[in-house]
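Notes from hallway chat w/ T.B., transcribed later so I don't forget. T.B. wanted the structure written out for a chain they're using in a teaching module, and asked if we could keep both sequence and structure tokens in one place. Agreed to drop them here.
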Amino acid sequence: MNQSIFIAAKLVMEAPRFFVALLSSLLLLMISTQTSSAQLTRGFYRNTCPNVEQLVRSAVENKFQQTFVTAPATLRLFFHDCFVRGCDASILLANSKAEKDHPDDISLAGDGFDTVVKAKAVVDSDPQCRNKVSCADILALATRDVIHLTGGPFYEVELGRRDGRISTIASVQHGLPHPDFNLDQLNSMFSFHGLSQTDMIALSGAHTIGFSHCNHFSKRIYNFSPRTRNLIDPTLNLKYAFQLRQACPLRVDSRIAINMDLVTPQKFDNQYFKNLQQGMGLFISDQVLATDARSRNTVNLFASDEKAFNNAFVEAITKMGRIGVMTGRQGEIRFDCTRVN
């Protein structure tokens, strides 16, 4: 038995009764996490659907040619899926009051969902692959493909996930980072999923091709701190702030989409970190990475060395892809990604 599991088991036996349930749950979680992540492998479908990666890639490329939004939408979909109930494609389920209906998920672009649905159809059109590849794995592969299509790194994807059968609006509550989070809040949320501060900063770099809406940052440019008469967040580059005001004028539809990287919005690169150095992070949770001394050095490293960023990003998204996965006979392989079998 692994040392950490042994300690947890010993504590369960020795702890007062009101701690037993909590520690027992922790023990089960530790065992489940170690077992499931160990069962994800590269080439998982080698014998059952050997062409799965080519099939998914062809569908993603077709969708990407139709609209660039495919890339940031699919990447964001994967993140939102993994951080709530684990990487089980539960975000795709369309039952009543599902994850996708939560206010934090409503802004997810439909092109991300459509990408997975179309990729699933292409995979299942191959008789050898039909109903053998999970929607969760298709989402993971599609995410890798959109990153590469926009100029980012190509990496091997660990596979073997099973699809979840449960998706509830309540499970999303407090499960996703908010645009006004400080560094402690970000680290706490990512640490809960086994991700380090470096992982968090690298994954934040995905905002290099992301977009957001005016209502998520309008306070920073119009009403930041009335008590101190700071209408504009002082950590925000003033010229950038006025650019944002032009794009998001008062009393205009707050759902207007704004690129998170105004310099190279359609290229997966390290420009996001260069922007942070210039006070051009769209969210408070972006800019804090450069203003907080504890994270600034990593931002500076990624800004100066794109290879270092790419390597860190691949490591981080691979780790993220292991969060709470179901394998073996757990869950199911959905025939339709939007509903349980």
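Follow-up for T.B.: The two ends are 36 Å apart (CA to CA). Might be a good example for the class.
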